[in-house]
Design goal:
Blueprint: E1 2-5, H1 24-31, E2 36-40, E3 45-47, E4 55-61, E5 64-68, E6 75-80, E7 85-86, E8 100-103, E9 107-113, H2 114-123, H3 125-151, H4 154-169, H5 183-190, H6 194-206, E10 210-213, E11 216-219, H7 222-230
Antiparallel strand pairs: 1-2, 2-9, 3-8, 4-7, 4-9, 5-6, 5-8, 10-11
Helix pairs in contact: 2-3, 4-5, 4-7, 5-6
Amino acid sequence: MTTDFGDCMSCKSFSKSAFSCFERGSVSKLINGNSVSIHYKKGQEIYNEGALAKGVFCIQQGKAKVYKKCPDRNMTIGLAGNSDLLGYHALFNSGHYKNSAACLEDSHICFIPKKTFLNLMASNPDMFHYVMRHSSQENNRLSDMVRDLKCKNMLSRVARSLVTVSEKYGFDNAHCLNVTLTRKDIAELSGTTTASAIRILNDLKKEKVIGFHNKRIRIQDVNKLMRYNHAN
C-alpha cells in the first residue's frame, strides 16, 4: 500500500462523485493537503468493522466490497466502484465503522478526514442531498437483501448476485462480468456457502446460462438468468 496527496483536479471520477456539486478548483483547494490518495492491492482491507471512523473513502479508480464479518463466513452487503463513498455512515451515528470494506482489484482510493468531509457537507446543500439520497438507496437495497435471504431459494439468490454485479460493474469486451470474483465472493454476496455457490454456478454453466473465460463469469443467457433472479 502506497500513499500520495489527494488531488481533485486530476481525479477521473470527480464528475460523478459527491463532490461534483462544487467547482473542481474550489473543492480542490479545500481538500488538497488534507486528503490522501492511497493505492491498495486486490484483497487489502480499506477499513475494519469496529474501528474509529476518522474519515471517509472515495474510490478514484477501482472496485471494492462492503461486508459484515461473521464467525463462519462473511456476508457481502454492498459493492462499490469509481466515485463511490465508503464509510460515511459511521460519521452520523456511533463514530465507529459498522462494517468492513476490502478491494476486489487494485484500487486508488482517496481518504478524506472527518472534519473536512463534514465541513464540505455543511457548506453545500447539494452535497448533503447527494449523501442522503445515496444513503436512502443503500437502505432500500439492504431491505431487499434481507427479504431475499428470507424468501428466495439459493438459486435465485445466486442469480440475483450475478445480476447485481452486472448492474454495478457492467461487462468487459468478452461480455464477462467486469470484475474477477472467486466462488467465495459469489457465496458471500448470495448469503450461501461456498460449496452451494459452486454447485449452483456449475448447474448454470450446464444450462448455458453462464460460462467462464479467463477466470471471469460470462453471462450467456440474460433472459433465463433474470427469470431465476425473480423466482422464489
